[in-house]
Design brief:
By secondary structure, the protein is mostly helical. It contains five helices and no strands. Helix 1 crosses helix 3. About 0% of the residues are buried.
C-alpha cells in the first residue's frame, strides 16, 4: 500500500514529517534493544488503551510509508505532468518568492 505523496496544508506536512521521524526512531530503538518480538508484544500489551491505539497507528504508518524509490518515481511523474501543463499553456507559472511566502504562511 502507498499513501499519497502530495498533500496540502500545514497539518499534512506535519503528518508526513512525524511519520518519517517515528519510523527512523522506531528502527533505531529496535536495533538498540535486545528485545525479541515476543518481549515487544508483551510490553505493548501492558500499555493503556490510548497508548496501544497510538502505537498501532504508528506501526501501520511504518508499513504504509512509501519507499524512497516510490517517492522519487511519484515526483518524476508529477514533475512531468507539471512541465506538460506549462508547455501546453494550461497553467501559469508562479514566482518562487510567492510560493515561498505562501509556504511560510502555512507553516505558521
Amino acid at each position: 500500500m502507498k499513501i499519497a505523496v502530495l498533500r496540502k496544508g500545514r497539518e499534512s506536512l506535519k503528518f508526513i514529517w512525524a511519520a518519517a521521524q517515528w519510523r527512523a526512531l522506531e528502527q533505531k530503538n529496535i536495533k538498540e534493544t535486545n528485545m525479541n518480538l515476543k518481549q515487544i508484544e508483551e510490553q505493548a500489551l501492558k500499555l493503556s488503551e490510548e497508548e496501544r491505539a497510538a502505537l498501532a497507528q504508528k506501526l501501520l504508518l511504518s508499513i504504509d510509508t512509501p519507499s524512497q524509490n516510490e517517492v522519487e518515481d511519484d515526483w518524476l511523474v508529477e514533475a512531468s505532468r507539471r512541465a506538460r501543463e506549462l508547455d501546453e499553456g494550461r497553467v501559469q507559472p508562479i514566482p518562487a518568492e510567492e510560493v515561498r511566502r505562501k509556504a511560510e504562511a502555512l507553516l505558521r
